[in-house]
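C-alpha cells help. Consider this.
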Amino acid sequence: MALVPGSSFAEGPQNWLGACGKTQIAAIIAESLWRSGAIDALIWINATSRASVLSHLVQASVAATGIEPTGTAESVATRFVSWLSQTHQQWLVVLDDLSESEDLDALWPDGLAGRVLVTSSRSAVAAGRRRAQVIPVGFFSVREALNCLTERLSVNPAQRQGAIDLIEALGREPLALAQASAVVANSTLACRDYRDYFTRRRQQIGVAAGEVPSAAAVTWTLSLGQAESLLPGETVRQMLVFVALLDGHGIPGSIFSTPSVAGYLGAAVTPFSAAVDPKPAWDALLAIERAGLITVNRAETPPTILMSSVLQGAIRLAAPAQVQDPAARAAASALLEAWPAHEAEPWTAESLRVNAATLQGSATDVLWADGCHPLLLRAGRSLDGARMVGPAVEHWRDLAARCDSKLIPGHPDTLVVAAQLAAAYLAGGYAADAVTWYQRVLAERGRELAAGHPAIIAARVNLARALIMAGEPADAVTVLHRAVTECEQFRGPGHPDTLSVSDELAAAYLAVGDSTGAIRLLTRVLADRERVQGPRDTETMATRDRLAAACLAGGRTKEAINHYKRVLADREKVLGPDHSDTISTEANLSAAYQTAGRMPAAMQLSQKCCADSERVLGPDHMDTLSRLASLGHLYYAVGRMGDAVAVLRDTAARCERVLPYGDPLTQAVHESLVNIAGSGG
C-alpha cells in the first residue's frame, strides 16, 4: 500500500466477521510513517459516531493550532479540517472503525500534504469518498501468521512445535491467532497441544450449533478456560460480560475503581463506604488479558481496556439475560460514578459518552426498566456542554422517541427529556422545532403545576426565546407579558425573578421594533434592581447595559452614551478591566460614540478595546475578530484608507484561518475590502 501525500485509503474486510486485524494494520502503517519522519502530525480518530469524530477533531485542533475552541464543536472541527487542507505540514488522519460515511459530512480531511486511512467493517462505507481507494483486508498469510506466533512464543521456542498445523487449523484468522498464542504463552502447552484442544472444542460447538463455527468463535472459549485457571471463581466470567457490554475501542480504567464495580464483583459496599479496593477488578482484568481476550493500554493513565467487537458480540450472544442484566446495571452506575463533575474541555468525557452510547445499544431494556436511566441524561448534558449541537439533538431526539414508546403517559422523565430536546434544538438554531417542543413542555407543566410556578415561568421564557429566533417576536411579547404578570402576582414586582423576566420582555420589545416600550420597561427594572440589589450588582449593570442598547436603538444616543459610560466605570471597578464583560462594554460605548459622530472618542476606545480583546481573549477569538472588523470600518469612516485596508486584510486572513468556510463575518470583511477598493481607497 503506497500511502502518499494527498491520498486516501480504506481498509475493509474480505469476510463477514470483520475480524481481520484492520486496526492493527492501520497502527503499523501509522507508526511506520511517524518513525520515518514522513509525517509531522498523526491524528487517530475513533470514528464510530459523529460525536466521537467531532471530539477528536476539536482536541486535534487545539493541539495543532493552539487556538482555544470557541463556538460549536462542529464549527471548530470544520475550521480544523480547513486548516488541514491548507497547511504545508505532512499529516496522517486515521479514521478507525468508521461506521457511517454520513458521520464525516463536511468533516472529511483533505489536502495535498495529508494522508487519510480509514478502517471499517463495511467496505461500502468509504468506497464513495473522493479519491478513496478501498483495500480489502483478509486473513494473515502463512508467513504473517507464523511471525505472529513466533514473536509471542519467543520465551520458550519449544512451544512452537506444531505451529504450521495450528496456523492452518485456525484458518490464519488474526483474532484467533492472538487468542491462541496468548493461551500457549501463559501455559505449558505447545502449539500442537493447543491445536488438539481446538479441534475437539470446535467439533463440540459445531455439533450443538449445527454448523462449523469460525476459529475465533472457538478460541475465545479456550481463552476463557485459561483465564479461569489463572483466577478461579466467578469474577473472570463476570468481568468478561461487563467488558463485552461497553466500547471495545477503549473502556476508561477509572470505572473499575468505582463502588458499583466492587459491589458487582461481590464486595460489601454501602453508601458510606470509604475508598473501594480496585484489586479484585484488576486481578480479573489481568487474568483475562493474559488469556488474550482483552488488551490493556498502559500508555494511558489510568489504563484503558480494549476488546475486539467480534469477541464482544460472541460473549453477548452466549451470556443469558440473568447474567447480562446485573452487568449492565453495574456498568451504568460505574460510568456515572466515574463521570467528572466538571468537564474542563469538550473532549474530557468523550470516552464516557461513547461507552454510555454503546451500553444503551447492548442493554437497552435494562437502561429503561425504571424510566430513562440517569446515565443517558448525563451523556446528553455532556454533549450539550461540549457544544456538540448535531449529536446532542440526535441524542435527545432518540431519548424522546424512546420515552414515548417505553414509558407510561405523564412519566416525569418524558418531560425532562422534552425540555432537554427543546433546548438542544434552540442551541442548534432549529427554531421551529424548539418552539414545538417548548410548547409541549409548557402544556405539560401547566397540567401538573400551578400558575406562577418557577418551572412554568422558565418554560414561558424559553418558548419566547425560541419564538424570537423563529422570527415571531410578537408572539414572544405575548408569552412574556403573561410570564411577567404571573411573576408579579405570585412573587411581587420587585422580586429578582420578576426583574429577570422583565429583561426578557424588553428584549422582545426590541425584537418587534418597540424601542420606546423597551426603554420604559428597562428604566423601571433598573430602578428596582438598584433599590433591591444595589447599583453595582452584576445583574443591575447588565440591565443598565440593555437600557443603553435600547436607547441607542431608539435614537436617544446621548442617554445611551451616559448609560454605557456608567456601566463601563462600574464594571471596571467590580469585575476589573480585563473581564470580558468590561471589554464588551468598551466596544458598545465606542459604537455609541460613532453613532453620535464623536469619532476621536470612538477611535480611541475602539483601539483600546481591540488591544484588550487580543490580550485577554486571544487574537483569533470570534469577538476579537468582530471588533477588529469594526475598527477597520471606523478607519474607513474617518478617511484612514490605508489603516482600514491593513486591518481588514489582517482580519480577513485570520477569519479564513480559524472560521468555517462561508462564515458571515469572513464574507462581511471581504465585502468591505471590495467596497473600499471600488471607492478608490
